[in-house]
């Protein structure tokens, strides 16, 4: 397999093409009709994770071009951010709004129970933002800056685009939607009705997120080749 800048460029190209190719000639629509939404998006999500893993490994194998020197304090950024990012990612799976990444397609953001969307209407995108920013701070070389900086830009743009889509689609109802959701807020936890309906599930998801973080922490060096520990 190609390494160096060639390998990095190849990985980035394949990963990028994989996101645009399904949109050509309505390929995604035809595959959803053939396989079903659940199978298609599960397979596509798995493929995206594999390809993105390739991008990360290829970035580590690219020539080191320093943009800023390694900073001791910056090595702590992923350690502090990633537990929160894993928890947010698990919160975001099937969150009760269709206007975000990983949201429930059938959710009614005006009449329905907003559930975890009251805590954050973009938990998966916030997880990606935390992952991107913390790793960008800890890696000051060109290849990693391209990967993490690009991910940071795309996640930020997606938040704005999804909110703009909600504003357009919901019309007058958008005011109530944004009033009852947040980019991130723990205020709903103080509502007894919300706690009664959602707190147990939220605690389970939080525990799963933390367990996955612990697993990723232990596997990081074997998979990525670099210890995530800041000491």
Automatic annotation (TrEMBL):
* Keywords assigned: Membrane, Transmembrane, Transmembrane helix
Cellular localization per UniProt: Membrane
Its predominant location is membrane
Q: Per its UniProt record, what InterPro entries does this chain match?
A: NnrU_dom (IPR009915)
Q: How does it sit in the membrane?
A: Multi-pass membrane protein
Q: Which domain of life is it from?
A: Bacteria
The record lists the membrane-crossing segments as 6-27, 39-60, 80-101, 144-162, 202-220
Tell me where in this chain the NnrU domain is found.
8-228
Q: What is this protein called?
A: NnrU protein
Lineage of the organism: Bacteria, Pseudomonadati, Pseudomonadota, Alphaproteobacteria, Rhodobacterales
């Amino acid at each position: 397999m190609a390494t160096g800048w060639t390998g990095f460029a190849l990985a980035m190209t394949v990963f990028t093409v994989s996101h645009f190719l399904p949109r050509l000639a309505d390929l995604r629509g035809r595959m959803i009709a053939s396989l079903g939404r659940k199978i298609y998006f599960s397979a596509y999500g798995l493929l995206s994770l594999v390809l993105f893993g390739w991008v990360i490994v290829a970035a580590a194998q690219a020539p080191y071009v320093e943009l800023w020197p390694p900073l001791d304090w910056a090595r702590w950024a992923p350690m502090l951010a990633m537990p929160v990012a894993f928890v947010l990612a698990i919160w975001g799976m099937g969150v009760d709004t269709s206007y975000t990444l990983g949201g429930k397609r059938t959710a009614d953001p005006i009449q329905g129970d907003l559930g975890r969307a009251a805590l954050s209407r973009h938990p998966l995108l916030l997880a990606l933002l935390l992952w991107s920013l913390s790793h960008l701070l800890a890696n000051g070389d060109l290849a990693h800056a391209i990967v993490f900086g690009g991910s940071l830009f795309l996640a930020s743009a997606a938040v704005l685009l999804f909110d703009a889509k909600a504003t357009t689609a919901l019309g007058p109802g958008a005011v109530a939607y944004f009033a009852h959701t947040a980019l991130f807020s723990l205020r709903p936890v103080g509502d007894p009705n919300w706690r009664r309906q959602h707190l147990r599930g939220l605690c389970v998801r939080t525990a799963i997120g933390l367990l996955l973080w612990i697993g990723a922490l232990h596997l990081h060096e074997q998979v990525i080749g670099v210890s995530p520990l800041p000491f």
